User: Fold this.
Amino acid sequence: MKAIVVGGGIGGLAAAVSLRRVGWEVVVHERAAVFGEIGAGVGVMPNALRALEWMGVADEARRLGTPRVSGGIRSSDGRWLVRLPEVGQEKVIAMHRADLHGVLLRALPPEILFNNVEVTSVEELDADLVVAADGINSRLRAELLPGAPGPVYAGTTAWRGVAPGPRDLEITQTFGPGGEAGVLPLGDGRVCWFVAAVAPPSASLDPAELFADWHDPLPDLVSSTPEVIRHDIYELPPLPTFVSGRVALLGDAAHAMTPYLGQGACMALEDAVTLAACDGDLARYDAVRRPRAQEVWRGSRMAGRFGIGVRSPVALALRNFALRAMPTSVAVRVMTRFSAWEVPAMPR
Assistant:
């Protein structure tokens, strides 16, 4: 059986690795001139790590990533709202997106990887299975599901970067009025960070000014980063199906979500392993993946309303009080709810 994967990002490469593991002949078509990944940090959550284990590449991910043992949520003035020293962060790996992409790329033979291939229609592809992993603006999704909703602006814009930073930082998420930030230390002297703010699309904003009075080391990280990546955040409203004929949608092409649970890349890894476990049964893939992915999509949206969406002083005070009063055990359950995923059983 032959599969063609359209898109050479994390999701597309994971699909290729996973399908080859169950005996499929696979080729990957990527429209860019080289295979690569831009962005900053990614937290490989326990669910994503289980997917990497199934693919056989988790050991290399652990070698390149940095396990963290503590973290939590802070307010913009630096006060801790939630401390999670025992959350089991040894199962969470902090990585640069490019490093995770490289782990998957090296698991594939070069002869199945094709660059500079622009796929505009499924009709161009001769394969038993086509994996549409071509991103939030997927051309294949638009062709196959013309009546389905397209991407919509989620109301926020974000900046990301990698900068030198202290080696003793913890994984932190910070909430402020109409803003959110995150720090993901890589352990090698680099720190991945992001900041986001409620704003109109394409607004002319300076993150160094917006976050100048937030707690250390956020202002220094933003101002010292030589190359800051800025993008408006879009999401894909829930689709009626993830499959059409011989085509399976995967990753952002199927369920692009806001980043407030840190599950975007993790969901693509789950998709890839589930697709392989279904071994060509696309009805089963849709039945297994769509409810799970759309539940996480809704959870991420709710997390945004509770986090970056809180703007008034009264609402901020109430939200922060609720977080400080939350028992650690409850906070751990909330944070691990969406990472409690297991690889589905293979069919007989």
Q: What stands out?
A: The longest strand covers residues 152-164. The chain has one domain: 2-339. The radius of gyration is 20 Å.
